[in-house]
Amino acid sequence: MQSTPTPLYQSLADELRSAMNDGRLPPGSRLPSVRETARSRGLSINTVIAAYRQLEARGLLEARPQSGHFVRSRLPSPPQRMPGRSAHAAPAETAVLDRITTVIAAQADPETIDLSLACPRDSDAYPGRALARLIADCVRRRPALLTDYSLPPGPLRLRREICRHARDLGMDLVPEDVILTNGCMEALQLALRGVTRPGDTIALESPTYFNLIPLANQLGLKTIELPTHPGRGLSLDALELLMSEQRVQAVIAMPNVHNPLGTSMPVAAKERLAALVNEYRVPLIEDALYAELQYATPLQPAVKAFDRDGWVIACASYTKTLAPGFRLGWIEAGRFQQRIAELKFCSSVAQPALLGEALGAFLESGGYAQHLRRLRRSNAADVDRLRGLVDQAFPAGTLATEPTGGFLVWVELPEGCDTNRLFDAALRRGISITPGSLFAPSGRHTRHLRLSACHAFSERHLHALFTLGELARQQLGG
Ligand SMILES: Cc1ncc(COP(=O)(O)O)c(C=O)c1O
Question: What does residue 228 show for φ and ψ, rounded to 5 degrees?
Answer without folding.
Answer: -130, 120
